[in-house]
Each structure stands twice: as structure tokens, then as C-alpha cells.
Amino acid sequence: MAPSRILRRAALAAVAALALSSCAIQLQSRPDPTVGDDTMLIGADTGAPFFEENFNPYLGTKRIGVNYLFEPLLLVDPISGQEHDWLAESTEVPDPSTIVFDLRDGVTWSDGEPFTEDDVAFTFDLLQQVPAFDGTGIWSYIDSYETGDGTVTVHLKEPDVPARVIIGGVVIVPEHQWADVENPDSFRNTDPIGTGPYTLGNFTPQQYSMDKNHDYWQADEVAAEHLILPAANSDLDVVTKGYDWAFKYMSNVEGTWLAASDTNSYFFPPGGTIALFPNHTREPFDDVRVRQALSLALDRRSIADLAAEGYMDPASMSGLLLPNQEEDLDPSLPDQGFVEQDRDRALELLAEAGWTLQGDRLVDESGQQLAFTITTANGYADWLRAVQEVERQFEAIGIDVSVDQPQPAGHTLAQRNGDFDLIVSSFGGTGTVYQDFNNNLSGEFFVPEGEETGNNFGRYRNDEVDAILREYRVTTDETRLRELAWELENVFYDDVPVIGMYYGGSWGLFSDRKFTGWPSEEDRYSPITYMPSALLVLTSLERVRQEGDD
Amino acid sequence: MLCALRKLGLFALTLWAAVTINFFLPRLMPGDPADAALARLAQNGPVTDATRAAIEAQLGLPTGNLWDQYVSYLQQVVTLDFGVSFTYYPQSVSELVADALPYTLILVGLVTVIAFIGGTLLGVLAAWKRGTWLDALPTIGGSFASAFPYFWTALLLLFFLGYVLRWFPSSGAYSVTSDPGLNWQFIGDAAYHAALPAVTILVTSLGGWILGMRNTMISTLGDDYVTFAEANGLRKRTVALRYAARNAILPNLTSFGLALGGVVGGSLLVEQVFGYPGVGYLLFNAVINQDYPLMQAMFLMITVSVLVANFLVDILYGVLDPRTRR
């Protein structure tokens, strides 16, 4: 056969291969029949590519399963913002500097030992001795604590009511096991003992199982007898292998996850606001008119649609996550704080600030064009799509925008050092209004450019905000707290410390094949698999009765 | 002897340069390991200064100025003790590499040897039967297959054979229920899991060997000594293999040396696509997490094996081709 004919055949084969790969092949969910009806397959913990055995809940490299093993004193759902009493039956704040946790009776560790205030005391001490474990910084709030009669009383360094959520959020470990650990900071806890609804079953580097703790203090609420967490959770795995619960952003979720099985559903509530943070120590971002103009120049709907394929909404300039935090929204804010694009008004504000349109360039008196750089992280595709749209919209009013995309570590460094004009990042999502605003706007975290900070990296300083936040810390009255939240929202709306773009999602994928009661539009709570709030999901589900079940 | 000594001296110098670059390159990346860890955490929810402090304490970030770090790094290189990984804390670097290396050595190593031998033989055949279908098929087929990007072939195979037809496992190095050990059941299971990645590497690398061998062989075949050997009535096989191929194989051998040295670097994309727990995957994680200890150990391993392989090929060249001995 002459080479030319072979070439032709090869070309034909290539065309056939292309045609085959471009035609849609609908993948169906085909669950492994050896996985029982009482067993839940969870896409939560992804190996790299295998699992290292590490069930120390305070290490960054912990297995996700620790969230189903260990429990905190109180739980805040990051979506609804609701506080749930957990290992503490109630949490009292007799005065703004004192927090009293009244521990639940009858809770036992999975080895049968009773859970007591000594375990809480041991945990607090552990976090003080090993600062590497204190990831939320509880010892920056605690002055001292005392225990007695099933309670733990914490005295704070200064009045700070909202700190109860942070201190109560620490997961508690058993003293009788951990007291003997010599080097807790490298302890892998391969035989974990917890108070949680599940205990560790079989561990292999490619998957591990967890079994229901039948002596759990609310065992009646726990539907799944076993959990299986595989190390490989690619999109294709999740769609085809019959997962019951996964936390994953999936492109075209209708055509993939929903189409794979008629029991599949998804719930993507906002989990944070993706925003442009102006550097308030640099010109012209220290001018509120410029910030307002930039905010007005944006068509947030088109940004949201491009960035998150239409799954997420534009962000409200109240600073809240809507509709999650609807209850805390000031009803007097126009249009729930959503800002529509208004180029004319934007140009007016810029003209007041000294920037006028000359041809298609926005220039100051000396003829210098308004120019700045937007910094985003390399590889975060949704952020980049948003930035490209923002660039287009800013350039439409005559601004010269350039985009800088360092690697994620470089982006974090720029953010911490204040080495940016405008930087893309996210804020909010702690579940409490106070924390969301305090982390981002509090003048207490202010440092000049060049010095590092992890909070308020926009270097915003506003005495009014600081006064509101200070009052927040000493207030226990619900009505007053709400008013304070409204005041913060109004400052956010008027002073534009941060330019919110769109909401980043919390990507919950669920299957009703075996279990129901998942988070949904009607029952809004967090679909997150990798935080203690997952306990809320695991204790809210019910078995779906199959035909033939009694 | 002098020649060998000179080569050894050059080898030592190159090694030192590589080791030093190994140290400085990762540190030129913006941000440090804590920033990388923080960036990863920030994807999952709000992080604060307290989180940063805790991460720094956990990682035990390098202290002292760059010179002190360099000196202690050189000590680590000499003692082969690279400390604890940042990404997989508290796993030690040696543990991690020792876990990943066997999978890569067997998968990539074996496939590289097979591809080299098979490709070279096919190349000889193609050159000898120049112009016939025995030439056209491997030559065109080989260049066609190697023109596809690695990962694309991998994704296609994975999608159709792994997910649609389900003939092969979609990830991992062995079944979940299988217990790693030296028994036939495990070896069979591991081979089954290695099949798709192996085919991917084979398909995409075979063409290079075929073409390389074929082209040099064709020019050798035109040389006078080959015509002379043919005219003397030697058997065709003897002429093809002992006369033409032996001389034509030299360039391919050089590439083979380099390829063998590179084996310990794993096959990053293939391992990524198939979730294969080899060195390539480990290296990828080390780089994105700015895991200096792990990166240093792995780059060192790769550099040293490439250098050693080169050195050996250099020596072997002298044996095969006396002209290079001067």
C-alpha cells in the first residue's frame, strides 16, 4: 500500500476519532452493587493521589473524616448563620467578658469513657501549649477559664461576645487518650477516639470507611450506618459511581450530575463574596468617589454569569451573603443593596474626583490616564473570567487596566503585603455578620503597605466602623445587634470599602437514592463536607425505604 | 584513563551546579510555603492571622538567612536526610519518595525500555524495507500517535476504556481491597491498574524511537561498507543488524540514556490523569505547595540520575564507537 493511501486512511481515522469525541456521550450513574443501602458514598476527602493516615483534627494535613469524629461545643452553620448547641447544652454570656458553657450530660467517648469538663479543659490547655493547633486563635481572646459541675467558664481578656462562637467552635479531644501523647504536633492519631456520630472503620491509602457510633448522644438522628470516603473523586467518578454526597463545582451540572440519575439534585448557596479589594493606602483608591465610580461602572450580572456559568448571583453591596443573611439585611437599603451599572453617574463621580473623559481616555489635569493593575491568582478560572469582564467594563469608561496573575502563593503574599492596586479575593462566609465585617474592615488590623496582615488586607480605616464593631463586642441585646448590623451594611454600601462582584458558591451535590433531608432551597443549611458543620447534615438525614423493606 | 578522570571531574562540577540551582530556584518563586498553604485554605473558607500563625508553627519554616539555609541544605544532601515534607506533614520526605518511587520505576521504567527496544527494532525494519508497507505503517502510525499530546491520549483512553466501557480501573495503583505485597495476586492487580497509563506512554513515545532509528539507519545503509558487505554476499540479517544498525543506534542510545535518567521524574501528566501514586504526582504537589524539602529531594534525585545516566552513556559510547575515546 502506498504511503499516500495510508495517510488518507489515517486522516479518516482521525476525523472519526474527533467526531466520536465531540458527540455527546451521556454518562449514567452506575453505583457499585456491593455498597449497601445503609452506606453513604461521600466525595469529600481527596488523596494526593493517596491518603496519608492522619486523624489529628488540629493539623492542616488531617483527613476530612475528623469532622465526623470530633465535635465542638457549639456549631455555627455557615449558610443559615444559625447557632446550634452541640457538646455544650447551652452557652450563656452573663457579662460581655464571660462565657459559660454548660456541657451536655450523658455524652461518652467512642471507647465508652464519659465526656467531662476535664476534656474541655485539657483541649484548651493543649491549644495553649501547642500554638500550631490554635488555628482560630482562641488564646488571643481567653484570659483564664475554670471548670466545675459540668460547666466551663471562660474569662476573656476584654469584652467580646462574638468570641464565644470562635472558642466554642474548637473540637474537643479526649484527655485520657491525648494526655499520653508525647509529641502532639506530629501525632497522627491513627486510632481516633471521638464523641462524634462516626468512628474510623477500615483505612487504606485509597479509601477509608467510617461506622456509626451506636452510643452517640443523638444516635437516633444518624441515618447512615457506614460512610465510605474514596481518595479519587474526579468529576467523572462522582457522576458515574453513585455518590450520595459530594462537594464539588461541576461545569454544566444539569447535563452531568442531574442527567446521570433522576434521584440526583444540587444546591449551590452563596458561600462567600468574590470581590475587588482596593488598596486604601494607594491613590486614587483613598477617594470614596473613585471607589463608588468603580462600583457603578460594573455590570455585575454579566460578571457573575461569565464567572460561574450562571449558577451564582451578583453580590449585594450590603456586604451580606443573600439570601443566606436576609434576616440581617437593612430593609431601607435600596434594592437589597444590589448596585446596577450606571456609567453616567460613574463618570460624574470621577469628574468630581478630577478625572475627565478625553476622547476614550479618562485623564487627570496633567493628561495622565487613570491606570491600575488588578491582581488575581493564576489557575482560579472563575476569578480570571470575572477579571477579564471587569477589565472590559473599566476600559469602556476610559481606564487603562492591566491584569497580574501570580501563582496562588504569590497572590496570597501580595494580598498580605498590600502589594496591589486592586486585588481579587473573597470575604464573608463565617456565618456571623460580625466576623465577616470585623475580619475585613476593622482598623485594629490596619498595617501600612509592606507589613503583613491576614485580615483587612485592603488596609481600610474608618472610625465609624471601628466604633460599631466595638459596640458589637459588648452587646447582647438582639435588637441592638440587628441595628448595628444595619449600620455596618450602610457604611459598606456608601463608603465602598470593598467592591463586591459576585457570590462564590458552596457546591453541594446530593442523591436521594438512599438518604433524604439534604440542604436545599427550602431547607437552607450548609452542604460543606469538610467542616464541623457537616455534622448537621449527617444528623438531619433519613433513610429512603426501599421496596421490600419492613 | 585520563579521559575517564576528566569526565568524572566534569561530572562533579555539573552535580554541584545542579544541586545549587536546586536550592535557589524554588526560593525565587513569589510567596513561601505558608502562603501556599493559606491560599489552599482560603479556597475553603475565611482564614485569619491566627490561621497563618498556626500554619507557620506547624511547618517549622526555614529560619536563618539564605546562606545558613544553603549550608544546612548541603549537609542534608550529603547525609541524604531531607527532613519533613510541608505538604504531607508529618510525613518525612524519604518516606514519601520511597513510597512513590517503585510505582514510577516499574511503570515508566519498564515502558521506556519496551518503547526503546520495540521502537528501535521497528525502525531498523522500516529502514530495511524502505518504501513498503512495513515502512509506512510504523513510520506514519508512530508519528501520528506521538503527535497527540500525552494527556489527550490519556484522557481519551481513560474516558472510553475506564468510564464508558469500564474495562479498566479509572484511578489508583491497585484495588482498594488489595493488600500491597510481593504475591502474584497483587502483582496482577497492579499490572491491571498500570495498563492504561502504560499504553498511553508507549503509544506516545514509540514514534520517536522508530523515526530516530529509521532515519539514521537509512543514511547508514547508503554507506560504502554496507554496499561492500552486501556485495560480499553476507546474509541480509547480518548486514542489517551487525553492520548498519550497530552504527545507526548511537544517537538513539544517547536519547535512551537521557530518557532512563528522566524516568525517576515520573510522567507528570499521565500520573495526574490516572491518579497514579508515582513520583510525577508527588513532584507536582511539591511544586504547587512550595514544599522546599520535598522539591529539593526530588529535583536532586532527577538531576543525579540524569547525570549518572549521561555519564554511563558517555562511557558506553567509548565502547561502541572507538573514535570518541580520544
TrEMBL record, chain A:
CDD domains per UniProt: PBP2_TmCBP_oligosaccharides_like
GO cellular component: ATP-binding cassette (ABC) transporter complex; periplasmic space
Domain of life where this protein originates: Bacteria
UniProt-listed InterPro entries: Peptide/Ni-bd (IPR030678), SBP_5 (IPR039424), SBP_5_dom (IPR000914)
Key words, A-Z: Signal
Signal peptide: 1-24
SUPFAM superfamilies given in the database record: Periplasmic binding protein-like II
Keyword Protein transport appears in the UniProt entry: no
Domain Solute-binding protein family: 86-438
Cross-referenced PANTHER family: PERIPLASMIC BINDING COMPONENT OF ABC TRANSPORTER
Protein name (record): Peptide ABC transporter substrate-binding protein
Lineage: Bacteria, Bacillati, Actinomycetota, Actinomycetes, Micrococcales
Automatic annotation (TrEMBL), chain B:
Pfam families: BPD_transp_1
Keyword Transmembrane attached: yes
Entry keyword set: Membrane, Transmembrane, Transmembrane helix, Transport
TM regions (residue ranges): 7-25, 103-128, 140-165, 190-211, 256-277, 297-320
Membrane topology type: Multi-pass membrane protein
Coarse class of the protein's main subcellular location: membrane
Cross-referenced PROSITE patterns: ABC_TM1
Location of the ABC transmembrane type-1 domain: 101-313
Compartments where located: Cell membrane; Membrane
GO cellular component, one term: plasma membrane
Lineage top rank: taxon: Bacteria
CDD domains documented for this protein: TM_PBP2
One GO BP: transmembrane transport
SUPFAM superfamilies to which the protein is assigned, alphabetical: MetI-like (SSF161098)
UniProt signal peptide: none
Record-stated family: Belongs to the binding-protein-dependent transport system permease family.
Stated name of the protein: Peptide ABC transporter permease
